[in-house]
Amino acid sequence: MSRETSQSTVSRARATELVPQADPARRLNRFRPAIDVAVRRVLDSGYLLLGPEIAAFEAEFARYLGARHAVAVSSGTSALSIALAALGIGAGDEVIVPALTAPATANAVCRAGAIPIFADVDPVTRTLDPGAVEAAIGPRTTAIVPVHLHGIPAAMAAILDIAGRRGVPVIEDCAQAHGASIDGRMLGTMGHAAAFSFYPTKNLGAAGDAGAIVTSDPAVAERARRMRSHGLDDHGVATMVGETGRMDELQAAILRALLPHLDEANAERRALAACYCHELSDLQIGLPPWHDGAAYHQFAVLVEQRDEVQARMAERGVLTGIHYARALHQHPAFAQDGRTLPVAEHLCARLLSLPIQPEVATGRIAQVVACLKASLGG
């Protein structure tokens, strides 16, 4: 077989290979040598919970973001519920949440004992609409939770202005925004506190569930540290109600191995997003907004007959994601008086997430774009 024939055969095989929407195992394997060292370090140390890896990761993650404190916890949901409770938010309080986000955001509010009040989102950024926040604020509003959906920054200046005038804290949901920024300032450092998830598919993902609370308020950090471990003080006395919300040493060690590569990974995602924007600019579909500081955790396009398009793309070998088929107020667990939030509902019926994880999408954009174009045409 000639060299040219061999290369052609390889190219055809690669073109027909199934493209997953995401595959966190590929990212872990990419950095496997450093992860193996980290795991061995934990197993050799004898510490499994609240040991040196946790302390080191908390310091390194806080330093990376430019915050004073990071508190490692068991999941992003725990991070948000503990952050709310550490700020004194509880039974009977109302917390404004965007209608377009994962149910975990509303679950965290409910776990804190508060009531989620859903507000509509901006049709372009797909994040919390400041005008809708103004309309949703009531006498029992005690917090606002903007979600940086898909790694695209929410309108923080406007939201912080509204919150400041009303005297309520802002807790950023940064579950999809690791390393994202606005004018050079990291998301997660703008509100009173922030919640991060390190679920395996995240830009900074562990090998299981993990999360962190970030704040520059030492009192909030101290309360969060106690709440993650049954409310116990250093003497084993329960001084407040808490939970089993600790991150384990293995996850902290893995995250420490991956954190130095986060900026590089985000730059790769922005390059892939830019390529998608260029290649898809001639189609009558909705593209996510371009933002120089976005982390592009997902690249979701807005298409009609979304479910049919997804099925056609799968038949052609490209898998996509429907992350939020319903807005939060459309879930039975959170339904509120049959209200409608038209922008969120419109987006939920049409958003389709294309592959954007660098280990999956690099070298595959042309294939994904061609598949999408063919699938849009039926």
What does this structure look like?
- There is one protein chain.
- This protein has 15 helices and 11 strands.
- With 378 residues, it is α/β, with parallel strands linked by helices.
- The protein has 2 domains: 131 residues, Alpha-Beta Complex (Aspartate Aminotransferase, domain 1); 231 residues, Type I PLP-dependent aspartate aminotransferase-like (Major domain) (Aspartate Aminotransferase, domain 2, 3-Layer(aba) Sandwich), CATH 3.40.640.
- The strands form 4 sheets. Strands 1-9-8-5 form a 4-stranded mixed beta sheet, with helices on both faces. A 3-stranded parallel beta sheet has the order 3-2-4, sandwiched between helices.
- Helix 6 links the parallel strand 2 and strand 3.
- Helix 3 packs antiparallel against helix 10, helix 4 runs parallel beside helix 10 and helix 12 crosses helix 15.
- The chain is globular, with a radius of gyration of 21 Å.
**How would you name the oligomeric state of the polypeptide chains in this document?**
single chain
Characterize the main sheet.
4 strands, mixed
Number of helices: 15
Distance between the termini: 38 Å
Query: What's the CATH H-level superfamily name of the largest domain?
Result: Type I PLP-dependent aspartate aminotransferase-like (Major domain)
Percentage of residues assigned to helices: 40-55%
The tally of structural domains comes to 2
Return the average pLDDT rounded to an integer. Answer: 92
Order of helices and strands: HHHHEHEHEHEHEEEEEHHHEHHEHH
Rg from Cα? 21 Å
Query: How many β-strands, per DSSP?
Result: 11
- The first-level CATH class of the largest domain is given as Alpha Beta
- Taking pLDDT < 50 over at least 5 consecutive residues as the criterion, the unreliable ranges are 1-15
> So what's the overall shape?
globular
